[in-house]
Design brief:
Strand order of the largest sheet: 2-1-5-3-4
Radius of gyration: 15 Å
Number of helices: 7
Bound molecules: FE2/S2 (inorganic) cluster
Number of strands: 5
Structural class: alpha+beta
Helix content: 25-40%
CATH class of the largest domain: Alpha Beta
CATH architecture of the largest domain: Roll
């Protein structure tokens, strides 16, 4: 089946099997290996990407379901030359150890701050409850998200994920605070 999607601002046309998961399309077909596979069962959050600006676990979405939509992976959030404030904060706050969970954690945290620019520590923990880390004990992750929120509120953000969305992309409709990770049109695939 043909899949026509926009990934990190660029159009991608793929010929895939209907059963191919979005995470595997990103990693294996497009070489975007910053999106990790930790469990394949919707438990760990390592595969988190933004779909039309909203965080989803890409192991719960078929690639064909993303056709016609906009995907942002960690590679589209920032790179070594221009880190996103969230990436800088994880670095400077030591919000990681092995790093396996980190890309998904950062994508989820970016989504969290889009919906709630000044979250409390409890709100940060709740916002990241779908992302598991087996190394850090989470304390420095919360510190990093707090620091990124401060930096972004202070205007230190050099770009936002919204600015990465192409002008012809779907309108972003952030879910009401506290609602599920998967936008309504993708909810059949489960969280
Ligand atoms: S790989 Fe663990 S939630 Fe997707
Ligand atoms: S830093 Fe190792 S799993 Fe989170």
């Amino acid at each position: 089946m043909n899949v026509d999607l926009t990934v990190n601002g660029e159009t991608a046309v793929l010929d895939v099997e209907p059963r191919l998961l979005l995470v595997h399309a990103l990693r294996d077909n497009l070489g975007l290996t910053g999106t990790h596979v930790g469990c394949d069962t919707s438990s760990c959050g390592a595969c988190t990407v933004l779909l039309d600006g909203v965080s989803v676990k890409s192991c719960t979405v078929f690639a064909v379901q993303a056709s016609g939509h906009v995907v942002t992976t960690i590679e589209g959030i920032g790179d070594a030359d221009e880190l996103h404030p969230m990436q800088e904060a994880f670095w400077s706050s030591h919000g990681l150890q092995c790093g396996y969970c980190t890309t998904g954690m950062i994508v989820s945290a970016v989504d969290l701050l889009q919906r709630n620019p000044d979250p409390s520590d409890d709100e940060i923990r709740a916002g990241l409850e779908g992302n598991l880390c087996r190394c850090t004990g989470y304390e420095n992750i919360v510190t990093a998200v707090r620091a990124a929120g401060r930096a972004m509120r202070d205007g230190a953000a050099r770009h936002s994920v919204r600015e990465l969305m192409p002008l012809h992309g779907p309108t972003l409709e952030p879910p009401p605070s506290g609602e599920g990770i998967i936008p309504p049109q993708f909810q059949e695939a489960g969280r």
